[in-house]
Amino acid sequence: MAHESFEDTEIAEILNENFISIKVDKEERPDIDSIYMRVCQALTGRGGWPTSIFMTAEQKPFFAGTYFPKKSRYGMMGFKQLLNVIHEQWGNNRDELLQSADAIVTAFNNEQGSQSQSEGSLIEIAADLYKDSYDKVFGGFGNAPKFPAPHNLLFLLKHYEKRGEEHVLKMVEHTLKQMYKGGIFDHIGYGFSRYSTDRSFLVPHFEKMLYDNALLILAYCKTYEITDDLFYREVAEKTAQYILREMTAPDGGFYCAQDADSDGEEGKYYVFAPSEIIALLGENTGQAFNEYYSITQKGNFMGKSIPNLLKKQSLSNEFVPYLSKIYEYRKNRNKLHLDDKILTSWNSLMIAAMCWLYRVSRNVKYLNAAKKSQEFIEQHLCENGTLFVSFRQGVRGQQGFLDDYGNYIFALLALYDATLDNDYVQKAEEFMKKAINDFFDEKNGGFYLYGTDNEALIMRPKESYDGAMPSGNSMMAYNLVRLSQLTTDVTYEAVEKKQLDFLYGESKQYPAGNAMYLIALSDYYEPVQTITVVSQNREDLKELPFIVPLDCIIKVLDKPTGEYPMIHDKTTYYVCHNHSCLPPVNNLREIDW
After folding, report:
1. Calpha distance 84→20 (Å, rounded)
2. Which pTM does this prediction carry?
């Protein structure tokens, strides 16, 4: 619509004469996007982008739709015709439109969320739903388009750890391997595209998003931890290499996204003809490279080929030395637009991903990247304990939403797990208390999308469904469970219970749509391993983040207590799991993790 209508002189004249046009960036204003997407879905039966909303000056919507062509075709009303009809109705039937708008707003504000006492059966129901929708041939879940949704995989990995169901682990492994082998992974420059348009993960929507790559790093790291298969760690490191090379600002923030289009064509940047590779690598090496990555004369996308490994039964590093040459050629051949906004919410997910990757690889560059991004947020996206949404070219966006707080607390807890620096826990607690004060519904449970200091809109939604990213409410449930298990602050327990009960009511109709909440629920009913360390020597703790499981709760005491005495006057470890504890030890390697 941007090219067909908004840049069209005729359409622009109609808009400028009769309407006030506002284009909304849904990353900058998720509150507006959430509210009016719900309106669009209610009025039309479907949603999606672009979303076109017509409303009064009081923000009250009376008409909604998604895509409109410039001129009417195939039974679709054209945007020009629609504008003229709405202008005519506004002039002749304004009272009816205003009554309709009032009725829509009233209906949405009278909606009541369902509340229930949470219990653990949802976890098993969700696991069965994933099993039922699993694609046994190509991996992933459901039909095309296939989104990575790595938080679903993280839930299944959690379920495998607690139930030991081998087929659940195999579902995750098959999916992660197929995604890597497919064209959704960029085999030349690394990193994952947003989703696959087909069932086999071959043809992606070529846009690369920071949050997808962050969540996928988490999933590959966790799978590596469980399986000890280096393949998963290597994919996580390749993805991180892409982020550090192409998506990281000089001062440490992570950029938002790279476009799918080059020179006005989707995917043009990523595809090759066999002759291009042969010209770069020579006849013999070029042909072998083309055969390995399925780059053919016929092609698999618009007459050219997306490099992929879907036909390969075994993978090789034979051609890795040639990738840098092809990468440089590709960079100079076409240009990709970089969305260089730095978003608090998405940066926070990548901070956590880098922390996990540091812990499974022991490579300090990942921890340094995480710390730099956190320092960037602290310097540019935080003021007096308040988070802000975005930063670009010296300009800071507006005050943060629930996702910003939920994901940033998640990041701070991951930094603590990687460093055992209690300052990160203290910061996490400060932001949690701010979020509870500004966003939490004390009466009914659940966190509102926007806080008391944000702009007031026609309704105040609570988002609970995990889409491409976990919802802010799911992340808050996870954070509350971890903080209540990590700290001695009992104030979290009441909020934690209300939050779990609220999300239980929201998710019980389709629990597979709330994977991150299910992880929190699982850890609430069956707590993860907790290790309490009594140590007066920080050097003894250096190995701890690399030895314990990624989701282990680590408590550090700098002096013995009555409950946790020091054994033999040495650093002492107390390991507990699911309400039972092992005898204290002085050497963590004595523990069978």
Report:
1. 14
2. 0.90
